[in-house]
Amino acid sequence: MDIGVIGTGNMGSMLIEALIETKAVTPAQFRITNRTPEKAAKLANKYPGIQVKNIENTILESDLILLCVKPLEMHGILEKAGGAFRNDQCLVSITSPVTVGQLATMVPCSCARAIPSITNRAAAGAVLLTFGSQCTSEWQGKLKTLFSKISTPVEVDQQITRVASDLVSCGPAFFSFLAQKMIEGAVNKTKIDSDTACILTAEMLIGLGELLKQQIYTLPALQEKVTVKGGITGEGLKVLEKGTDGLFEKLFEATHEKFKEDTDAGGRAIRHTMIFRHLSVDSCFFFKFFSKKKHSAWAECFYLLMHVKNILSLFGPGASSVKSAAGGITWKPDSVSQFS
């Protein structure tokens, strides 16, 4: 199976490195492309056999395509290169704001989402999988097998995608931040130096992970085991309980607010792409004008006004569809609802 990777930033590069170093995939199986060619070339130099291509050839020469770019960049890439996809391929997005349903409106192949974690670099942690309704059972099996080489694949519903991603994908950054704050506090309040504090904290976290991995303790049982009544750990926990009251609720509110913002923006971009496909040539000028950021809502209103049945009736008795002068596509009044 040949794998194409569009986008070799942090996560794209991490997935390539993890899959090669666990021997799940050979370098020769990869076709990669990136907006900054030097980044792709760097990976090809590190792993001889990787082939650097343009976007179209990356798609054409691959069976599985991993789309590892920011949400707002996806619709432009797929609008430009979507015609290169075949029915027997599989497109996988690694970002949460773009749904598998939205991907399926732009390509003819199986679609899925796989949200990785930086922990996958060490062949640990989870990958969150969501499959589109048109994703074949064969591709579902192949994806589970592939990602099991570097993680524990967990299938999640769209409704909990964001919070699951917060725990799995963002979680390492959150806990790294907390660990660094713990180290800073120790250095500021005691005579321990930063290097020693870092070593001790890292070893503690590794040991904690092993206890959980081997299922020796659960998190509550571990806390109870360490906390002696009237002891020092208990005094520290009192401070943490007071300082973290409502903290993580605010954290999830912030991540979900950003998620909604990105989801809305990505949805608008895809809707506008599909709308433009259906517009007649005479209408394109007005749509382009209204599609400017501050007028994006007007763009959709303009499109709807152009095509509702009551307006269509002005052009002739029984008119219920319009044939696009641009692409020969017949538009019917209910064809927008699937993108909302």
What's the arrangement of secondary structure elements?
Layout: E1 3-6, H1 10-21, E2 30-33, H2 37-46, E3 51-52, H3 55-60, E4 64-67, H4 71-81, E5 90-93, H5 100-104, E6 110-115, E7 126-131, H6 137-148, E8 152-155, H7 161-189, H8 194-213, H9 219-226, H10 232-243, H11 247-278, H12 281-290, H13 296-307, H14 309-312, E9 322-323, E10 330-331
Helix pairs in contact: 4-11, 7-8, 12-13
Report on the structure:
It is a single chain. The C terminus is likely disordered. This protein is of the alpha/beta class and 340 residues long. The chain is elongated, with a radius of gyration of 25 Å.
Beta strand %: 5-15%
The gyration radius over C-alpha positions equals 25 Å
Largest sheet: 8 strands, mixed
The structural class is: alpha/beta
Write down how many β-strands occur, each being a DSSP E stretch of 2 or more residues.
10
Basic shape: elongated
Number of helices: 14
State the helical fraction: 40-55%
Mean pLDDT: 84
How far do the termini sit from each other?
35 Å
Which strand order does the major sheet show?
3-2-1-4-5-6-7-8
